[in-house]
What we know:
By secondary structure, this protein is of the alpha/beta class. The chain has helices spanning 31-34, 43-55, 67-79, 93-110, 131-136, 179-188, 212-225, 277-281, 302-317, 320-335, 369-379, 401-422; strands spanning 10-14, 17-20, 25-28, 86-90, 118-122, 153-156, 192-197, 201-202, 208-209, 229-232, 256-259, 271-275, 344-350, 353-358, 382-383, 390-393. The model has no long low-confidence stretch (mean pLDDT 95). The structure holds pyridoxal-5'-phosphate (PLP). Pyridoxal-5'-phosphate binds next to helix 4.
Amino acid sequence: MKTAPDPLPIVRGEGAYLITEDGRRILDGISSWWVNVHGHCNPRVGRALAEQAGRLEHVMFAGCTHPPAVELAERLVSCLPPGLTRVFYSDNGSTAVEVALKMAYQFWTNRGEPQRRTFLALEHAYHGDTVGAMSASHDSLFTSSYAPLLFRVERIPVPDDYLASMDPARDGTATDPLDTIESLLERRNSEIAAVIIEPMLQAAGGMFVWKPEFLRRLKGICDEFGLPLIADEVMTGFGRTGPMFACEHGPVEPDLICLSKGLTCGYLPLAVTVTSDRIYNAFFSDDRRKTFFHGHSFTANPLGCAVGLAGLDIFAEDRVLERIAAIESKMRTRLEKFVGLDCVRDVRQIGDVGIVEFETGGEGYLSELGPWMGAEFLKRDLLLRPNGDLLYFMPPYVITDEEIDWVFDQIEDVMHSLMQDRA
Ligand code: PLP
């Protein structure tokens, strides 16, 4: 099997396509690492960016403020799950998670409970590459080199019963393994700061799709024990799983939510951590030691906020959530054909994300299948980047039905070669 080729020299973007320096039009089937929502070089987003660049490119966000940051905060609060009212800006997904972890911990110290410093996080989690985000992420190839630097978290399993598959034969039994978490909390609640999750779709750690019951049940347990729930929607936010935010599948209202990627339509690095009044009020004090001391040079960058606002306008004006529902059902009809194939272990889908897990003998991320398939797709002018034995398709929402069919024709073609290779 051949490995992936050299990096692609991309000189232009246009809708769902990336254009190489030698003029190839390559369909971006993974939304450029899941950030692009309204297509590359969307003219409306580009105009908003240019207009803002002519007014104010940047100003520090300490002691200063500016209209795009205020307006974006207000707009986000109006479309987020109720109860999320206070917006804190940073500049990428990992920092949004760092902010949430630090806030949750300081929430308790400000309230006189500094012993609450253990986080509950899920098996297969991925929350980013900074030290706190890596600590909350599952131990893996990506974190093992830094293990001595990471803080310990309690790991919650995601029971099979709560995982969704398109194969009815894989449906679990209706037991309730979350009882084990309850019993842990009954013994150790006074040490726990918060629970952090990627709601409904655990992406980089294995593309696991949940049934909404898991989200609801976990939130119920957090409420029972008074624990803040942190929803890391860096990847799932802005329609990726169907509704605007994955928490709506519950529906549940988290205490903190982390957003980035689609927040700026994939144009510029920007992030927010949005919290409830309950969290905010623990910091609102004349005692300056209770301040949340966290600020990045590019916090609330005006250009990022302006494209964020343009992106929200497009969601409303073009009824993008309806288009995502149509993409979901179009994709489903093609994905269903893969269920039960010999080379396929599982097929699952949520919103605009279709996932095929291949049988590879348990090599997971290090399976050579991923780079081989990636290279095969590229030969066909399709950019997909399988994670080892996991192939996923997650296009920008401007993709057409014809383009979806074309993508699945390419996937079937490559699967056919794979099956022939294995025969
Ligand atoms: N959280 C989740 C759920 C992610 O999927 C990612 C990135 O893929 C991150 C956090 C980190 O985001 P960033 O790469 O912008 O730091």
